[in-house]
Structures are given as structure tokens and as C-alpha cells.
Amino acid sequence: MRTVGVQVRGIRTAIVKEGDDLVRIVVDALWRAMEAEGISLGDRDVIGITESLVARAQGNFVTLGEVTADLNRKFGADEIGVVFPLLSRNRFSTILKAIAEGFSRVYLLLSYPGDEVGNPLMDLDRMEEAKVNPSTDLLSEEDYRRIFGVEVKHPFTGIDYVRFYKEMGVNDNMRIYLSNNPREILRFTKKALVANVHARIRTKKLLRAAGAEIVYGLDEICTEPKATGGYNPQYGLLGSNLSADDKLKLFPRDGQVYVDGIQRVIKERTGKNVEVLIYGDGAFKDPVGHIWELADPVVSPAFTPGLAGVPNEVKIKYLADHLMEENGSSAVEEGVKAYIRNNRSDLVEKEATLGTTPRQLTDLLGSLCDLTSGSGDKGTPIVLVQGYFDNYTTE
What we know:
Shape: globular
Number of helices: 12
Strand content: 5-15%
Distance between the termini: 5 Å
Radius of gyration: 24 Å
Strand order of the largest sheet: 6-7-5-4-8-9
Mean pLDDT: 89
Number of strands: 14
CATH architecture of the largest domain: 3-Layer(aba) Sandwich
């Protein structure tokens, strides 16, 4: 009888550089770990590769000058409104620096009480005491300071983001407002850069319908090759990260080439049919800070076909309780296994009627990989997941 279910291992590898053969590096790192730890691959094992490894190998970087130039081609250089950016030094501040350098006037519209992924801008109790209505009220920077104080620190970073973003302006060209209605930006300019991630399509639609003259999203900036070689035709600047003071690492492109290549090489070496995905931010929420982790446009920008869809699972706890009521505790162990084997399709269909959340496999596995590799100094940008597709009846 199997006594261990899913096993997850972070695999260490050397620092990847532009131009490196990523397929070879991933496979070789996996092989070294297998030999050192006595690991054997099985069919449907899953190999995850963090997105930054792919982006670095393909040299997917842009300079701030290239970002500014692309923005000026689309918006001119006089003024721009930026709608609903994330509150992040890593994700957005460098982009804002490029914006501030390129325009005479920048109007920054922040959502509140927090950004799209939950980074807070204010104390909720004070907001209610002041009778601020986030559904209708537009706040100026002066309103914000009068109500919430001269310093409002993020609980994790300790940064006052309104001040931090304001000080990124050039020659006092930054104006900051707070509202949850994207159309409020049109009070100040008819040119809007949509900076939110997951609701960007709706935000663009609302702005165009309200009379905006120029509307682009971050997903439409840096979508064509630059002198540095960096671009992303699908996501543009979405999913980008600070790389250096004057450079951004973009979300990887052409990821299917890498995942298919790794899958093929491992099949040639072992005869095993593994699954491979590239993962970015996991889709989970911090229970203390209430911050949703997913600042990337998707959890997984590329994966092998076997990872499409949702899990085909049965709730053992429900079935065990049901059989125990009917047959007593002594019959539960083998009874559950036999019942699952004989009635899996009916049980899976029943799960859907019970309202089980239909999460995508790539979101679940990508989140598992992200939690394993972390964002610090673990040095494990490759993750091996084994037994994920086993179930209680697997011997």
C-alpha cells in the first residue's frame, strides 16, 4: 500500500544567463538531483520552471528609455492618465519612473482602500468614520492626507506609496487621486494608460465608452522587439519586474518551445511522459495582510497539453462519512477504495453538483511551485512534483 502521496522538491541550479540553453540546464539539474537523492521519474510527474529563468535565458529585458519611447509614440509627450496601478516597488515603480520621464503632466488614479491585489492604502475604520464611500467618492491627495494622516505605511513594506509615487515625478509633474471609478481620470485628461492586471479589459471598455481619446493598457506597451531584444506580444509590460535601476525583466514569451522541449528530452532519456509548466506568481491570498499574490497576468504562461483543464477528483471525507453511516467504521477503508474504483465517473459528476470549486490544474500546480521555490534565496527555480495525479486507490 502506498504510504506517501504528493511529493514536492525544489531543484537547485546555477544562475541562468541570456543565451543559455534552458532545456539542457533544466534537464541536467534534474538529473543531478535524481542521482544525488535517489529519485526516479514516473509518468505524469510535473516539472515547474519559474518564469524568471525563462525570461533571463531569452534575454527578455527592456530599458526605461525604450518604455518611455513606446509610450510617447502612443500618447505623445504632454500628458497621460495612469489608471489603477499596483502598489509595488518591484512591479510598478520602475514603470512609473519611465512614465514620469516622458510626460509633462502625469495624473495617477489609485483604487482604494487598496490596489487590485489587496495592497492597502488606508485604515478601513478611519475610512468609515470619515464617511468616505469607496463606491462613489473621488479623493484628492489633499483629501487623503487630511483623512488618513501625513504618513500611511504599508503593513509589510513600511512604504507610504502615495508619497513614494508622488516623489517619482519630475519637476512636480505628478498628480495623485483616489477613486474606484476609472472614468474619473477623464476629468483631468482624455489619454489613459490602464495599469490594472486582471480587470484591464473592462477598464479599457469603460474608458472608451466614456469618451477617452487614447486608451492603451500595460499589456500593449513593449509588445514589439526592442534594441535590447525584449518584448512580449501578448502581455507587454504586465508581469514585468525590476531588473536594474534602468531595466525591466518582462514576462517570458514563446514559453511553449521550452516546455515542449523539456518534455521531449525527458521522454527520449527515460521513456516517461512528464508534464512541464512555466510558473509565475501563485494564486493565493495572505490571511494576515489580505494581499492576493497574483500580480502576474496568469499563473502559468506555458504548459504541456496534459495540464489543461481541472482536476478529476472525489471528496474522500464526504464518501467516508457516507459509508460509515451505512456500514460502520470497519468497512470504511477498503469500502472507500472499492467505491471510488467502481463509481468514479458518477462521483466526479456529483462533485460538480455539490459546488466544488473548479480550479485550473495550472493554477493549482503553479501556486504549489511558487510556494516551494519562494521569492528569496532558496535557489530552487525548478520544482519537481510527483504523485500529484495519484489518488487514494493508487497502489
